Amino acid sequence: MAQVPNDVLDWLGYLGVAFYLLSYGLLQAGILRGSGYLYTIFNLVAATLVLLSLSVAFNMSSALIQISWIVISLVGLTRMFVGNYRVRFSAEEERLANAVFPGAPPAMLRRFFNAGNIFTAPVGYVLTVEGEPVRQLGYIIDGRAAVTCADRVIGTLRDAFVGEMNVRCEGLASATVVIDEQATVFSISSKTLNNLCKKDHDFAMLVNQALSEDTGRKLVASNLRLLRDDPKQGPMPEGTG
């Protein structure tokens, strides 16, 4: 068997270091999730490359660290695969997951769904009340809700969050949201949501991104509606709480 040149092994070590730095940098930048496959794979590759490079100048301490990192990464990947493979969602949960959390780890979503509940909201069911604290985050999976501000209907909601702007701090709702077409709704309390976010930084980033994107879509829709109704009027933001 041909022997690998020492300079090639050295470069494998440098590449391993690059993978270590890249994975940690992307983690700190919020691009990778610490509980995700990619971060673990990056560290597995990094440890393997550095271990190979040690054949040039073997060091037991460094080798033990790399071997331990490889074993831990393999155990982590196996745990994630088994955990995610065993997760099952209902049709409503699947629809919500695809609409709001595409690509999120199934096991993470399972914890989120288990912490809330999905129910059928009849016509007239109130989700938020203008001027009152928002203590529940809702998502209208199916059906429709009317949005009222200052006793004036300002829009409707479908496939959208309700209370996303103030639920994390239990701030006051900027509008009243009432079901006006029987709906299927997911709901989770502010306290429970915040506890989940405190325990899992990756989940907190996922939720914050989803809420921010939902708010952005509503602002765009509001501005387009204002321009359609009055082209001379500049765009003004509108929120649902």
Question: Topology of this protein?
Answer:
Blueprint: H1 6-28, H2 37-53, H3 60-85, H4 91-100, H5 106-115, E1 117-121, E2 126-128, E3 136-149, E4 152-157, E5 161-162, E6 176-189, H6 190-199, H7 201-229
Antiparallel strand pairs: 1-6, 2-6, 3-4, 3-5, 3-6
Helix pairs in contact: 1-2, 2-3, 6-7
Number of strands: 6
Q: Which descriptor suits the 3D outline?
A: elongated
| Secondary-structure element pattern, one letter each | HHHHHEEEEEEHH
What's the CATH C level of the largest domain?
Mainly Beta
- Proportion in helices: 40-55%
Strand content: 15-25%
CATH superfamily of the largest domain: Jelly Rolls
The total count of helices amounts to 7
How many domains, in number, for the residues? 2
Mean pLDDT: 87
**What radius of gyration results from the CA coordinates?**
24 Å
Note the gap between the termini.
68 Å
Q: The CATH topology of the largest domain is what?
A: Jelly Rolls
- CATH architecture annotation name of the largest domain: Sandwich
Main sheet summary? 6 strands, antiparallel
Unreliable runs: 233-241
State the secondary-structure class. Answer: alpha+beta
